[in-house]
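Submission checklist for the structure archive. All mandatory fields must be present; incomplete records are returned to the submitter.

[x] Identifier: Glycosyl transferase family 1 domain-containing protein
[x] Organism: Adineta steineri
[x] Residue count: 720
[x] Sequence attached
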Amino acid sequence: MSNHGEYLIVLTCFDYHSLIHTCGVEKKKISHIPYGISIPKSSKDFKSVEILSKYKDTDFVLLSIITNHPNEDYKRLILNLKSIISKIPNLYLLIIVPESLTINSNLSQAVKNVLLEDKVTWTNKSISANELHTLYRRANAYISLLDKTILTFVTLLNAMSYGLPIISTPNIFSNEILNYDKGLIVSFNDDKIITESIITFLTNQTRMKIFSKNGRESVKKWTWNNIAKQYTILFNNSLKHTLIDDPYRTEMYWNNTGTLNFDGQNVFLSLAKDKAQPGIYTIYSDSFLQLNGKLNDNSTIEEDNSTSKWFIPGFDIFSHSCEGQRLSISGMEHNAFILPENILQCSEEKSRKIQLIMDGRFFDRSSFASVNRKMFLSLITYKDLLVTIRPIDRTVHPDETPLETLLVYSFFLRKSILFSKNKTIIFRNNWLPNLEGVSKNEILVHQQPWEFHAIPVHWLHYFQNKIDELWVPSEYGKSSYIANGIDKNKIHVFPHGVFVEKFNLTLSPFPLNTKKTFKFLSIGTILPRKGFDVLLQAYNARFSSKDDVTLIIHSTIKDLMKKIKKTRLSPEIITLGYPINDIDMIRLFKSVDVYVAPYRSEGFGLSTLEAMAAGVPPIVTKYGPSLDFCPEECAYYIDAKVTECFTNPCGKMEVFGLKTKMQAMWAEPNIQSLSQNMYRAYTNRIELRNKSQICRKHAEYYTWDKIADKIVKRLSQITH
């Protein structure tokens, strides 16, 4: 387009700068001409609209008009609406969606869960232009919860033309049009910020009037007559000015303190403390956030349905030669500003002392992929370490949402790293294990968690003779390999980690269909070694439907539930048999009182550590990896008896069909002990609170930063 076209017309200042700074298009070829709107006549007559009949003149109507499917921010708004209404009792939310869309069942259920069906009105009925005019006239304020990659949105401009005070989430367009006191931009990543910002804004009449006036005056420039004049001037080759001021014309600078609201308080919480930390980085101008993706400040990214891929060009994610992030939406690339030279202060590849290739799964939902992603993103920030990946799975699933997945995938899509002739470390962590050797100039480190004590004979020769080091996440794993004949000097323990800071956000509770106030949680696949059968027996033996308690199980548990004979006295059980994204999983942890893991065998138990990071004390089997990171001060131990395992996948002297030197072992949790511990946690709330505080503090010893420090230290020792 740049080579063959005379002009490129862009709708936003963001696109204007992106084409110049990241695509190299000549400035003189680009013209910024936005969409146009029709300014409403100043009539105060309200025509009759059925949907408005329920509102009194004194009611405060917050209007939102959606032209696409509602995103997750609407659910967040509804979940926080009760807190907002407690301060603004006459507030009503009116949401208009296109006739072609059905009302989202999840959002409707969210309204029911918070008992606000009289306060929230949805409609997808056909609305005429006159009726729409009346809706704008009747509303007291407008809220726009658009995806952060949105480029322009006419309904937002229309609302401003009617003089409605605007509340918006950060996106490319809102950050351009709502700056300089024309609208309030609120991050929807922290529930406390959502409620406090909206309440403060909607109860400040003076501030709303200022925003209303500024917004209405600003969009008068956007009339279709003015847009037509811009094209006429362009065709006469004399376009020298734009309809709106360029919000990015001042010098761009990095900032990690966040967007400010009108009182100068942080709305968007701080991002990574160190510029070389992994994350989707953003560029700020005049305290207004410029985004090129649906960024969350807790290191996650809510993937847009139209997003096909993220990628970061350059020789390294954090190399100063990188041109900035690019987001491809529906086949069209959107580019961030070029990063100033050395902004990330990352050393060049040639000066890296350690070269590491990570081999295994990275993009699926397995625990192996999750650990590999987290380890990679923790290691890549070290200046002496050059890391690349060799994934055996090469596709990101459409329903994957974590930022870590997209970042690692972006790394994989870019050009391959050119390694020097120095020795390279190959790190493997996968199921099933890759037992192939490596070249003489490569050092092989293999990480292999294990649950059944007896190691397949087929693996032992490889672990003893083909690798340089064997890494395991627990002392239990180390003792198992030693018992099977592996040299103890080859084995090193590096536990898995957790991003503790993610659990420190103020979040609304996970929506659960229960009136019970005390909640147990258990997470895992339905395998014999996970002990769900023991859990259900213990729970049913101790509690009944009369008790104020529920057990939440995140798994597919239908087959197991059939084995439990339910009566009207059976205690409540809630099953969540669907995938839950990272942020909602944290909300789930923070919505429960106790985490239960009555496993028979376990490789590490990452969910238990995540529960502790959320301040949720675990009830765990007194056997295996939990003894490493669950001190008695914060955990409840289930008595267990170590016994031989003949249950699938174990057989006589075999595991997963592979022969072993000894019989597989695991521990049988004592049902009575589990039952007693569940009742103890339920009845002794003071002890539970104390354990909660200890858990949260103890989890800080297992952050990925701390684990990465130990790993890098060991890698340095290996290469010297």
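[x] Structure attached
Curator remark: The CA atoms of residues 162 and 278 lie 42 Å apart. Residues 72-87 form the longest helix (16 residues).
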